[in-house]
Design a protein that fits this description.
By secondary structure, the chain is an alpha+beta fold. It has helices at about 5-20, 25-40, 60-70, 80-85, 85-100, 115, 125-130, 150-160, 240-245, 260-265; strands spanning about 130-140, 145-150, 170-175, 195-205, 220-225.
Protein backbone atom coordinates (compact mmCIF):
# COMPACT_ATOMS: atom_id res chain seq x y z
CA UNK A 1 0.00 0.00 0.00
CA UNK A 2 1.39 3.42 -0.96
CA UNK A 3 1.05 6.31 1.45
CA UNK A 4 1.54 9.87 0.23
CA UNK A 5 4.55 11.71 1.64
CA UNK A 6 2.30 14.45 2.98
CA UNK A 7 0.24 11.89 4.86
CA UNK A 8 3.36 10.42 6.41
CA UNK A 9 4.53 13.87 7.50
CA UNK A 10 1.14 14.63 8.97
CA UNK A 11 1.17 11.30 10.83
CA UNK A 12 4.60 12.04 12.29
CA UNK A 13 3.44 15.51 13.38
CA UNK A 14 0.27 14.15 14.97
CA UNK A 15 2.29 11.49 16.83
CA UNK A 16 4.74 14.14 18.05
CA UNK A 17 1.96 16.44 19.22
CA UNK A 18 0.21 13.60 21.02
CA UNK A 19 3.45 12.70 22.80
CA UNK A 20 4.03 16.33 23.75
CA UNK A 21 0.53 16.68 25.18
CA UNK A 22 1.24 13.75 27.52
CA UNK A 23 4.73 14.98 28.40
CA UNK A 24 6.16 15.43 31.87
CA UNK A 25 7.77 18.79 32.73
CA UNK A 26 9.57 17.39 35.78
CA UNK A 27 11.07 14.55 33.70
CA UNK A 28 12.05 17.07 31.04
CA UNK A 29 13.84 19.21 33.63
CA UNK A 30 15.84 16.20 34.80
CA UNK A 31 16.79 15.18 31.25
CA UNK A 32 17.70 18.79 30.40
CA UNK A 33 20.46 18.88 33.04
CA UNK A 34 22.95 17.60 30.46
CA UNK A 35 21.69 20.07 27.83
CA UNK A 36 22.49 22.92 30.22
CA UNK A 37 26.14 22.72 29.14
CA UNK A 38 25.19 24.68 26.03
CA UNK A 39 21.60 25.85 26.48
CA UNK A 40 21.76 26.77 30.17
CA UNK A 41 19.78 25.31 33.08
CA UNK A 42 17.11 27.95 32.53
CA UNK A 43 17.01 27.48 28.74
CA UNK A 44 19.13 30.58 28.12
CA UNK A 45 22.28 29.65 26.19
CA UNK A 46 25.89 30.13 27.27
CA UNK A 47 26.96 31.99 24.11
CA UNK A 48 25.57 34.06 21.28
CA UNK A 49 26.00 31.32 18.67
CA UNK A 50 23.77 28.85 20.56
CA UNK A 51 19.98 29.30 20.50
CA UNK A 52 17.90 29.94 23.61
CA UNK A 53 15.27 27.27 24.25
CA UNK A 54 13.34 28.94 27.06
CA UNK A 55 9.75 29.78 26.07
CA UNK A 56 10.22 28.20 22.62
CA UNK A 57 7.13 26.61 21.04
CA UNK A 58 6.64 22.92 21.90
CA UNK A 59 5.90 21.84 18.32
CA UNK A 60 9.02 23.56 17.02
CA UNK A 61 11.27 21.95 19.66
CA UNK A 62 9.83 18.49 19.02
CA UNK A 63 10.21 18.84 15.26
CA UNK A 64 13.81 20.09 15.47
CA UNK A 65 14.95 17.38 17.87
CA UNK A 66 13.30 14.75 15.69
CA UNK A 67 15.04 16.20 12.64
CA UNK A 68 18.42 15.96 14.36
CA UNK A 69 17.62 12.43 15.50
CA UNK A 70 16.52 11.07 12.11
CA UNK A 71 19.21 12.90 10.12
CA UNK A 72 16.89 15.29 8.29
CA UNK A 73 18.87 18.09 9.91
CA UNK A 74 22.57 17.51 10.56
CA UNK A 75 24.85 19.08 13.14
CA UNK A 76 28.11 17.67 14.49
CA UNK A 77 27.06 18.40 18.06
CA UNK A 78 23.29 18.00 18.11
CA UNK A 79 22.92 14.95 15.85
CA UNK A 80 24.63 12.45 18.21
CA UNK A 81 22.96 14.00 21.25
CA UNK A 82 19.48 13.79 19.73
CA UNK A 83 20.23 10.26 18.56
CA UNK A 84 20.38 9.20 22.20
CA UNK A 85 16.90 10.62 22.97
CA UNK A 86 13.64 8.67 22.92
CA UNK A 87 10.34 10.16 21.71
CA UNK A 88 9.32 10.50 25.35
CA UNK A 89 12.57 12.32 26.17
CA UNK A 90 11.98 14.75 23.31
CA UNK A 91 8.40 15.44 24.35
CA UNK A 92 9.41 15.98 27.97
CA UNK A 93 12.26 18.32 27.00
CA UNK A 94 9.97 20.35 24.75
CA UNK A 95 7.34 21.01 27.40
CA UNK A 96 9.98 21.78 30.02
CA UNK A 97 11.75 24.40 27.89
CA UNK A 98 8.42 25.85 26.78
CA UNK A 99 7.48 26.35 30.45
CA UNK A 100 10.48 28.59 31.15
CA UNK A 101 10.42 32.40 30.86
CA UNK A 102 12.21 33.77 27.81
CA UNK A 103 15.53 35.61 27.86
CA UNK A 104 15.82 39.37 28.11
CA UNK A 105 18.25 41.20 25.85
CA UNK A 106 21.70 39.65 25.59
CA UNK A 107 21.42 37.55 28.75
CA UNK A 108 23.73 34.49 28.86
CA UNK A 109 24.07 31.53 31.21
CA UNK A 110 27.37 30.58 32.83
CA UNK A 111 29.35 27.56 31.62
CA UNK A 112 28.86 24.42 33.70
CA UNK A 113 31.94 23.91 35.90
CA UNK A 114 31.59 20.11 36.01
CA UNK A 115 32.13 19.96 32.25
CA UNK A 116 34.48 22.88 31.71
CA UNK A 117 36.98 22.24 34.49
CA UNK A 118 39.87 20.61 32.62
CA UNK A 119 42.64 18.60 34.27
CA UNK A 120 44.84 18.65 31.17
CA UNK A 121 48.16 20.40 31.59
CA UNK A 122 50.35 21.78 28.83
CA UNK A 123 52.94 19.13 27.82
CA UNK A 124 56.10 21.21 27.97
CA UNK A 125 58.26 18.52 26.36
CA UNK A 126 55.94 17.54 23.52
CA UNK A 127 58.31 18.70 20.77
CA UNK A 128 60.99 16.28 21.98
CA UNK A 129 58.86 13.36 23.16
CA UNK A 130 55.65 13.31 21.04
CA UNK A 131 55.26 11.91 17.52
CA UNK A 132 54.06 14.20 14.74
CA UNK A 133 51.66 12.19 12.59
CA UNK A 134 49.38 14.49 10.58
CA UNK A 135 48.87 18.01 9.20
CA UNK A 136 45.48 19.31 8.04
CA UNK A 137 44.47 22.46 6.14
CA UNK A 138 41.33 24.31 7.29
CA UNK A 139 40.43 26.48 4.25
CA UNK A 140 37.35 28.07 5.81
CA UNK A 141 39.47 29.30 8.72
CA UNK A 142 42.62 29.96 6.68
CA UNK A 143 44.39 27.82 9.19
CA UNK A 144 46.72 24.80 9.27
CA UNK A 145 47.06 22.37 12.19
CA UNK A 146 49.78 19.88 13.13
CA UNK A 147 48.90 16.80 15.17
CA UNK A 148 51.06 14.98 17.74
CA UNK A 149 50.63 11.93 19.99
CA UNK A 150 52.60 10.82 23.04
CA UNK A 151 54.30 7.43 23.35
CA UNK A 152 51.38 5.90 25.28
CA UNK A 153 48.99 6.70 22.42
CA UNK A 154 51.50 5.55 19.78
CA UNK A 155 52.11 2.19 21.45
CA UNK A 156 48.39 1.52 21.89
CA UNK A 157 47.80 2.32 18.23
CA UNK A 158 50.71 0.09 17.17
CA UNK A 159 49.24 -2.91 19.02
CA UNK A 160 45.64 -2.14 18.10
CA UNK A 161 44.57 -1.73 21.71
CA UNK A 162 42.03 0.84 22.98
CA UNK A 163 43.59 4.05 24.23
CA UNK A 164 44.79 3.55 27.83
CA UNK A 165 45.06 6.05 30.65
CA UNK A 166 48.02 8.31 30.05
CA UNK A 167 47.32 8.82 26.32
CA UNK A 168 47.69 12.40 25.06
CA UNK A 169 46.94 13.97 21.68
CA UNK A 170 48.15 17.50 21.02
CA UNK A 171 47.59 20.04 18.21
CA UNK A 172 49.38 23.19 17.08
CA UNK A 173 47.02 25.58 15.26
CA UNK A 174 48.53 28.23 12.96
CA UNK A 175 47.13 31.10 10.96
CA UNK A 176 48.18 30.50 7.35
CA UNK A 177 50.35 32.89 5.40
CA UNK A 178 48.18 34.76 2.90
CA UNK A 179 48.94 35.89 -0.64
CA UNK A 180 48.04 39.26 -2.22
CA UNK A 181 44.45 38.09 -2.77
CA UNK A 182 44.08 37.05 0.88
CA UNK A 183 44.23 33.32 0.13
CA UNK A 184 46.45 30.82 2.01
CA UNK A 185 49.86 30.21 0.48
CA UNK A 186 50.40 26.52 -0.27
CA UNK A 187 53.86 25.08 0.38
CA UNK A 188 55.69 22.33 -1.55
CA UNK A 189 54.15 19.73 0.81
CA UNK A 190 50.65 20.88 -0.33
CA UNK A 191 49.83 22.26 3.10
CA UNK A 192 49.22 25.89 3.97
CA UNK A 193 52.38 27.71 4.99
CA UNK A 194 52.08 28.46 8.72
CA UNK A 195 52.71 32.10 9.58
CA UNK A 196 51.65 32.62 13.18
CA UNK A 197 50.83 30.23 16.01
CA UNK A 198 47.21 30.86 17.11
CA UNK A 199 46.57 28.34 19.90
CA UNK A 200 47.01 24.72 21.00
CA UNK A 201 44.43 22.03 21.72
CA UNK A 202 44.84 18.82 23.67
CA UNK A 203 42.98 15.73 24.82
CA UNK A 204 44.30 13.53 27.61
CA UNK A 205 42.90 10.50 29.44
CA UNK A 206 43.62 9.66 33.06
CA UNK A 207 41.79 7.48 35.59
CA UNK A 208 38.73 9.16 37.07
CA UNK A 209 38.80 12.19 34.80
CA UNK A 210 35.35 11.34 33.43
CA UNK A 211 33.74 11.22 36.85
CA UNK A 212 31.06 13.86 37.26
CA UNK A 213 30.60 14.44 33.53
CA UNK A 214 26.99 13.66 32.43
CA UNK A 215 26.68 10.40 30.47
CA UNK A 216 25.25 12.30 27.52
CA UNK A 217 28.68 13.93 27.08
CA UNK A 218 31.17 11.67 28.81
CA UNK A 219 34.01 10.37 26.62
CA UNK A 220 35.33 7.69 28.93
CA UNK A 221 38.01 9.40 31.04
CA UNK A 222 39.10 11.97 28.43
CA UNK A 223 39.42 15.66 29.21
CA UNK A 224 39.99 18.44 26.66
CA UNK A 225 41.73 21.80 26.77
CA UNK A 226 42.56 24.80 24.59
CA UNK A 227 45.80 26.63 25.38
CA UNK A 228 46.91 30.12 24.42
CA UNK A 229 50.28 30.56 22.76
CA UNK A 230 51.97 30.93 26.16
CA UNK A 231 50.73 27.49 27.23
CA UNK A 232 48.01 28.73 29.58
CA UNK A 233 44.50 27.22 29.57
CA UNK A 234 42.10 29.51 27.73
CA UNK A 235 39.10 30.44 29.83
CA UNK A 236 35.53 30.54 28.53
CA UNK A 237 35.92 27.60 26.13
CA UNK A 238 32.85 25.37 26.22
CA UNK A 239 34.21 21.82 26.38
CA UNK A 240 30.70 20.43 25.92
CA UNK A 241 31.25 20.94 22.19
CA UNK A 242 34.40 18.78 22.33
CA UNK A 243 32.65 16.03 24.26
CA UNK A 244 29.62 16.07 21.94
CA UNK A 245 31.71 15.92 18.74
CA UNK A 246 33.88 13.04 20.01
CA UNK A 247 30.98 11.13 21.62
CA UNK A 248 30.07 9.05 18.50
CA UNK A 249 33.68 7.76 18.28
CA UNK A 250 33.53 5.39 21.26
CA UNK A 251 34.69 2.45 19.13
CA UNK A 252 37.78 4.48 18.15
CA UNK A 253 38.57 5.48 21.75
CA UNK A 254 36.86 8.85 20.99
CA UNK A 255 39.78 9.88 18.73
CA UNK A 256 39.12 11.21 15.21
CA UNK A 257 42.62 10.63 13.85
CA UNK A 258 43.47 7.06 14.89
CA UNK A 259 43.71 5.89 11.28
CA UNK A 260 46.13 8.69 10.44
CA UNK A 261 48.30 7.81 13.44
CA UNK A 262 48.22 4.11 12.49
CA UNK A 263 49.34 4.92 8.95
CA UNK A 264 52.15 7.16 10.19
CA UNK A 265 53.70 4.58 12.51
CA UNK A 266 53.69 2.02 9.71
CA UNK A 267 56.19 4.13 7.75
Amino acid sequence: MKIALGAVSALVMITSLTSAEAADIAAGKEKAEACAACHGRNGISVSGDIPNLASQKVDYLVNQLNAFRDGTRENAIMSPIAGALSETDIANLAVFWNSLPGASGSELSELLPEINKTRVRFPQDYQETFTWYMTINFPDRKQVRKYFANDVAVQATRTGEPMPHGAVFFVEAYAAKLDAEGEPVIGPDEFFVPEKLSFYTAMEMQAGWGDGIPDLYRNGDWNYAVFSTDGQVKQGVNQAKCFACHKPLAEDSYVFSLNALAEKIKE
